[in-house]
Write a structure and sequence with these properties.
Elements: H1 8-14, H2 41-47, H3 60-73, E1 77-81, H4 84-95, E2 101-105, H5 110-119, E3 126-130, H6 135-141, E4 146-152, H7 164-173, E5 177-181, H8 186-189, E6 199-202, E7 217-221, H9 223-236, H10 242-253, H11 255-274, E8 279-283, H12 293-299, E9 306-311, H13 315-324, E10 329-330, E11 340-342, H14 354-360, E12 366-370, H15 376-387
Parallel strand pairs: 2-3, 2-4, 4-5, 5-6, 10-11
Antiparallel strand pairs: 1-7, 6-7, 8-9, 9-12, 11-12
Helix pairs in contact: 1-3, 3-10, 4-9, 11-15, 13-15
Length: about 400
């Protein structure tokens, strides 16, 4: 009989569980300890690389979270970190050295843009930024010392979709490592590893935890890469606390059902906005008007819970819309069960120069929505009321 492979919904709930084990705790225990005792020094040496030595190196509760994400992504292993930025910075420092070069998308989270453009040059590592979906630019930017291709898809906040087949073919041709921030996509809607991407990163703060009560990051990938990153993490010390890992594990159990509802709600919200007279442009991968709609449909099972749009008005209009909403709470971050709204130029990309933001396609009129699991009709009613605060668009008279 052909071996049955569990689906993502099952992996999210039981991915790290030993289904043959009986008479154990059903809920993951919290190993709230900094260190572990041993019987002798020989055992001490044996357990040093394990999750029963010292929590900066590993912890059994952390291991459950890591194994669950690895199962969801179809990767060999995963590591948790104290934050998403901790996951990214530690990974890059583990895999790169002075003199190396990165090719990175221009359309990435503002904090990563800052790390690549301001911090890594201090370590002798340069980055060339290219447009996310202009693959000839990627190819032209590669140098003899290029080591890594850094990606994000869907992008924050413009929701462009990267063609995984094209970028992995390019990375393979030039023997580059590929790393993607897949936070917006979630392991439910896409699996970059299946296309050959080496490392998949998530800000676990967002969809993986799902309740706006946790800061964490996760990186999944091949075993040998994860081992190199682990060595750097133990030195830098940005590991996850066991109780935080337990919160992450609990959130992961409902990941699939939450994302399914968020996909459904976001699709309805995007369709509503696309027909509104006071909305200039809507960004959502599963709208037919999206420039990468065909790619999104091919490599994603859902459009995700993020929608961004540009009001037909001024920056003040965009601010006013965001401030008068009620169900969409004005706050940074995303991915939780409650809907949030933010202005990217004031939050995620505040520290990115205005000229660079323009290249990314981020305007002052752009509003980013993180669509939660509330009733979609209620969310749309909130948006409709908020958009009434925008001055009527000026129609151009012809003739």
């Amino acid at each position: 009989m052909k071996r049955h492979t569990h689906h993502s919904e099952t992996k999210a709930v039981r991915g790290a569980a030993d289904l043959e084990k009986k008479n154990g705790p059903l809920a993951t225990p919290i190993y709230q300890t900094s260190t572990f005792q041993v019987t002798d020094n020989d055992e001490q040496l044996r357990i040093t690389p394990s999750d029963h030595y010292y929590t900066r190196y590993g912890n059994p509760t952390n291991t459950v979270a890591e194994q669950t994400v690895a199962a969801l992504e179809g990767m060999d292993a995963a590591l948790t970190f104290a934050s998403g930025m901790g996951a990214i910075t530690t990974t890059l420092m583990a895999l790169l050295k002075s003199g190396d070069h990165i090719v990175a998308q221009r359309e990435i989270y503002g904090g990563v843009n800052k790390f690549l453009s301001h911090w890594l040059p201090k370590m002798g590592i340069e980055t060339t930024f290219v447009d996310a979906t202009e693959y000839e630019q990627h190819a032209r930017a590669i140098r003899p010392n290029t080591k890594l291709l850094y990606l994000e898809s869907p992008t924050n906040p413009t929701l462009r979709v990267v063609d995984f087949k094209k970028v992995t073919a390019l990375a393979k041709q030039h023997k580059l490592l590929s790393m993607i921030d897949a936070t917006f996509g979630t392991p439910i809607n896409q699996h970059p590893g299946e296309f050959g991407i080496d490392l998949v990163m998530h800000s676990g703060t967002k969809y993986l935890a799902g309740h706006s009560d946790l800061i964490c990051g996760v990186v999944a990938g091949r075993q040998e890469l994860i081992e190199r990153i682990w060595e750097t993490r133990t030195t830098l010390g940005n590991c996850m606390d066991p109780h935080a890992s337990w919160v992450l594990v609990r959130g992961l159990k409902t990941l699939a059902v939450r994302v399914a509802r968020q996909n459904e709600n976001a699709q309805k919200v995007a369709e509503f906005l696309s027909e509104h007279a006071k909305v200039r442009r809507v960004h959502y991968p599963f709208l037919k008007s999206h420039p990468q709609y065909a790619v999104a449909r091919e490599q994603m099972s859902g459009g995700g819970g993020m929608v961004s749009f540009e009001v037909e008005g001024t920056w003040e209009d965009a601010r006013r819309v965001s401030e008068v909403m009620r169900l969409f709470t004005l706050a940074p971050s995303l991915g939780g069960v409650e809907s949030l709204v933010s202005i990217p130029v004031l939050t995620s990309h505040l520290n990115v120069a205005s000229e660079e933001r323009k290249k990314m396609g981020i305007t002052e009129q752009m509003i980013r929505l993180s669509v939660g699991i509330e009733n979609a009709d209620d969310l749309i009613a909130d948006l409709e009321r908020a958009l009434a605060a925008v001055s009527a668009p000026q129609r151009v008279q012809v003739g």
